[in-house]
Design brief:
heterodimer, A: mainly alpha, 11 helices, 1% strand, B: alpha/beta, 13 helices, 17% strand
Chain lengths: 320, 362
């Protein structure tokens, strides 16, 4: 009778080292998790603390006023709030359309595997370009390209509010155009992931029922991935709200708001970037108030976005 | 040992190693100064004194050149200068974070009070602000006082406005829109420019006034960040006009306007004309003089000194001595470098007064 080899043990109790490292890992994870929450709280508190004086003095009039005059202590950010929302709206409209289209091209077999990979990387490279470079590109390349087009539109369609002024240089249109390119990688990447995550059996089933490619894309893929695509749009909008340098260079930094795409405007982030370095104590308070306003706007959009997304995807739970 | 345990251990070790390395670096840098200062055996020449300064960005090209040249001649003194902007420079100096500050707008009485009066303002160099414009076919544009104030007030909106045309007989001015370009960030340049506009025009004084940033009244006004941002905007925007430090117009070869001075003469913005403007100003006791509207036929109207802020009393003898020798060199040999970098060398009458003030530093 041969001696039986001892059976290799598959399961064993955790060693002391494993238990300890497990505890350490858990503590570290908790500490960092808590740190993120605390950091946000600390930022909000700090902003509010410095904004206090300006909040008491200017109250809600701060949001409707449109004069920013440090010499006379008059501060109002209506043009900035409107400008932030207006430029971001156009960027989201264009960037959303382009981004989702690109995501479809990159995920629905329109290109070869190789082509998809190359295109995907090129789009994602756009995210690696520094904001200042976008600003310079806007001033030196984009604006001279847009100027004749804007001039023609103003000449022929000047009665239309969107084209009611001439584009001298920086303005809403160049700012929105550059914002569009800047939020494109985020929207494309996240939408593409969402589309790729749709189970192939859904498409297969639709094809099996005789659906065409377009029907599959518009009736099956897009609705199923809508939650993720919506998330992509919210992320893109958040990026657009907070974008600073390129807009400080391209929005025109004018303390006015106009519906015209060609008139100069301003955004909250650009206002902060421009005025902080040389601001006196009282102006800093007003700037902090403006920063608080930007924070609230961004948070509101994110929360609203999440709520809408939850509502929209509630019916699609079973598919995943 | 389990594989993932090994990985974790490796990460931990790596982190620990990184922490030790950083600690070591810190020790190294602080330890470097300590033995040099304490060891009496080594010759005194080993003692390196570091002077920290920050402030105005307009004279920064000249300052960094000065401090570099000075550093090569005097290896024992190291000067760090950061161009953070005049306002930030005053704040850092008042808070004691720097050994000296620099400002294009000097210091206000309140700011001097905040520094407990322990400050001397030293004019180190001077410069002038020019109006650069973008009209391809127009050379040596002449702007009367009511024309350039009107442009920035938003009253003059077309290039062929009679107010502009009157001073430019025979020049074909286009009927295009004027885009006035201003600094979007707070700056000493804006302060000097608006101060001049306030001195020239009652309407400007009652409207936007004087400040490092003001509320620009012209409807078509566009803001650019920093001197180079404004210069870039002027260059790329047909029909634009904006104010920049002379240095930025000189290096980019942009056309600049002749301005009408107090005597009613049109003067080209040359360094000589700006020097003439400064020559007419008598420096007061505290060396804080503004050239808001210089007299003299040959004087260019918008010129300014820029100041270094130093303490009257430093606690540290070696530091104050090092700073004094540095400032004296800048006011002496250093002035020869000014012209090369498009700054105005200070006249003898001014440097002698400033040198006296430097001598007073303890």
């Amino acid at each position: 009778m041969t001696e039986q080899k001892p059976h290799p043990q598959v399961a064993q109790p955790p060693t002391g080292w494993q238990t300890r490292s497990d505890v350490v890992f858990r503590v570290v994870a908790h500490v960092f998790g808590a740190a993120v929450v605390l950091l946000l709280a600390a930022i909000v508190l700090e902003v509010m603390r410095h904004a206090g004086g300006a909040m008491l003095k200017h109250g809600l009039g701060f949001f409707s006023g449109s004069v920013w005059d440090a010499n006379r202590g008059q501060f109002g950010i209506f043009p900035e709030i409107a400008g932030t929302l207006y430029t971001s709206f156009w960027a989201l409209l264009l960037g959303g359309f382009l981004g989702v289209t690109l995501a479809l091209i990159l995920s629905q077999g329109f290109l070869s595997r190789r082509g998809e990979l190359v295109m995907k990387n090129i789009v994602e490279l756009l995210a690696a370009i520094p904001s200042v470079v976008y600003g310079l590109w806007g001033i030196f390349v984009l604006v001279p390209l847009l100027r004749p087009v804007a001039g023609w539109l103003n000449d022929h369609w000047g009665a239309f509010p969107l084209f009611s002024t001439r584009l001298s240089g920086p303005g809403v249109l160049p700012a929105s155009a550059v914002l569009t390119i800047m939020i494109l990688p985020t929207i494309t990447a996240v939408s593409r992931e969402a589309l790729a995550a749709v189970p192939p059996r859904l498409a297969a089933a639709a094809y099996g029922l005789g659906a065409t490619r377009w029907e599959v894309i518009f009736r099956v893929m897009l609705p199923t991935a809508s939650g993720g695509i919506f998330g992509a749009l919210v992320l893109g909008l958040g990026r657009a709200f907070g974008e600073t340098m390129a807009l400080a260079m391209l929005a025109g930094n004018a303390q006015t708001f106009s519906w015209s795409l060609f008139s100069p405007g301003n955004t909250l982030a650009a206002l902060l970037a421009n005025h902080f370095p040389e601001a006196g104590e009282y102006e800093v308070n007003a700037l902090m108030y403006a920063a608080g306003a930007l924070l609230v706007i961004t948070l509101t959009v994110n929360i609203l976005g999440s709520l809408i997304m939850m509502k929209a995807t509630a019916g699609l739970k079973g598919l995943r | 040992m389990h594989r993932s345990d090994k990985n974790l251990l490796r990460t931990l070790l790596a982190l620990l190693g990184a922490a030790l390395f950083l600690l070591g670096c810190n020790k190294g840098s602080s330890g470097q100064a300590a033995p040099a200062a304490s060891s009496a055996a080594t010759p005194a020449a080993d003692t390196t004194i570091t002077l920290q300064g920050s402030g105005a960005s307009f004279p920064a090209p000249l300052y960094s050149r000065w401090f570099r040249e000075y550093g090569t001649k005097h290896p024992t003194v190291r000067v760090n200068y950061q161009a953070t902007g005049s306002g930030a420079g005053i704040k850092a100096f008042t808070a004691g974070q720097t050994d000296f500050g620099a400002s294009d707008a000097a210091m206000t009485d309140d700011e001097i009070k905040a520094a407990q009066g322990n400050v001397v303002l030293l004019p180190m160099t001077a410069g002038h602000i020019v109006l650069a414009y973008n009209l391809p076919d127009v050379k040596d544009l002449k702007l009367s006082r009511e024309a350039y104030v009107g442009i920035f007030l938003g009253d003059v909106t077309k290039w062929n406005d009679p107010k502009i045309a009157k001073a430019n007989p025979g020049v074909k001015l286009p009927a295009t829109d004027i885009t006035p370009i201003n600094r979007s960030d707070g700056s000493g340049t804006t302060f000097v420019f608006t101060q001049h506009l306030s001195a020239v025009s009652e309407k400007w004084k009652a409207g936007p006034g004087t400040g490092k940033s003001v509320s620009w009244p012209a409807k078509a006004a566009v803001g650019g960040a920093k001197n180079d941002g404004v210069a870039a905007l002027i260059q790329r925007t047909p029909g634009a006009i904006g104010y920049i430090e002379f240095v930025y117009a000189a290096t980019s070869n942009q056309p600049v306007a002749w301005l009408e001075n107090k005597a009613g003469k049109f003067v080209a913005p040359t360094p000589e004309a700006a020097a003439a403007a400064l020559a007419h100003v008598e420096l007061p006791e505290d060396l804080r003089a503004w050239v808001t509207d210089p007299t003299g036929d040959d004087a260019y109207p918008i010129a300014t000194y820029t100041w270094v802020l130093a303490k009257k009393k430093y606690g540290d003898k070696s530091k104050s001595e090092a700073l004094k020798t540095l400032l004296k060199w800048c006011l002496g040999d250093g002035q020869k470098l000014s012209t090369e970098l498009h700054f105005l060398p200070l006249p003898e009458s001014v440097t002698s007064r400033v040198l006296k003030a430097v001598d007073g530093i303890e």
